[in-house]
């Protein structure tokens, strides 16, 4: 039994490393951007969850009501902090559980605000705190992506790898990191609720991103 403990500990460390290195994108980022664009109101986390659920974009996550609530909150807060980082330095997304609001201009004390929220932001950006394994997180995010693609009318048929790289304006030797960076850049540029956004181009980018992730 004593000999088995190091092996068990090693497996736990490997599982934690898998989740820590997870590079999946949270699909709730994009419908949240739409909600903030179409409404100037201040949101609460549970109101956002209800709104996304009504649109078919927030799934049931656990049979236990307590765990389901925790996982919904974690998924939303993760997306909010990801979006906050993406919108800087032009805009500021205030992320507080009872006061979530998009400001069109970032305040002059944005570094101080980030410092004040650092511990909470790091907690929600670390998938190890979701209390599950990396494969379950990947399956969950894939399910959410499927719902979002259906919601925006994306073609469920996957693009060929070469065609997807062309849509993403990437070279053949693009790394996973290059692909993810370019996905975020183009998605943020063409999101229909951004200035000069384009719904058709945004759908194409989503389709290309999904094809490259699966290849």
TrEMBL record:
Signal peptide: none
Record domain J: where: 163-215
GO molecular function: misfolded protein binding; protein-folding chaperone binding
Source organism superkingdom: Bacteria
GO biological process, one term: ERAD pathway
SUPFAM superfamilies per the UniProt record, alphabetical: Chaperone J-domain (SSF46565)
Pfam families, sorted: DnaJ, DNAJ_related
Keywords: Chaperone
The protein's name: Molecular chaperone DnaJ
Record lineage: Bacteria, Pseudomonadati, Pseudomonadota, Gammaproteobacteria, Alteromonadales
